[in-house]
Amino acid sequence: MPVAGRRVLRVRVKPRSSRAGVVEDATGDITVAVHAPPDKGKANGEAVRLLAAHFGLPLDAVRIIGGAASRLKLVELAGAGRKTRKGGRRG
């Protein structure tokens, strides 16, 4: 049963990208492009920071709950009932 104010997203992370940002397409798929390499959690940390900024949440409200060593991740957002920013990087 889902917990109120929590949302789980499937996210694709693209490490070593030339432009960092979050893209939500028309189907709801989310891609996070990060500058960091997939080394010692650097790309995951940057992805969490970008997602927190994108959804207007504090850093501790965003956590990776699955796929930490994969490009496809499950990310939990706490307090995800309100989205303060729309869009993100397009492309």
Q: Specify the overall morphology.
A: globular
Assembly state of the chains shown: single chain
Give the helix level as a range of percent: 10-25%
Strand order of the largest sheet: 2-3-1-5-4
Q: From the coordinates shown, what is the CATH architecture?
A: 2-Layer Sandwich
Structural class: alpha+beta
Q: What's the story with the biggest beta sheet?
A: 5 strands, mixed
C-alpha termini separation? 35 Å
- Average residue pLDDT: 87
**What is the CATH H-level superfamily?**
YggU-like
Short description:
The chain has 91 residues and is α+β, with helices and mostly antiparallel strands. It has one helix at residues 42-55; strands spanning 6-14, 21-24, 30-33, 62-66, 72-78.
Write the layout of secondary structure elements.
Layout: E1 6-14, E2 21-24, E3 30-33, H1 42-55, E4 62-66, E5 72-78
Parallel strand pairs: 1-3
Antiparallel strand pairs: 1-5, 2-3, 4-5
Explain this structure to me?
The chain has 91 residues and is α+β, with helices and mostly antiparallel strands. It is built from one helix and five strands. A five-stranded mixed sheet has the order 2-3-1-5-4, with helices on one face.
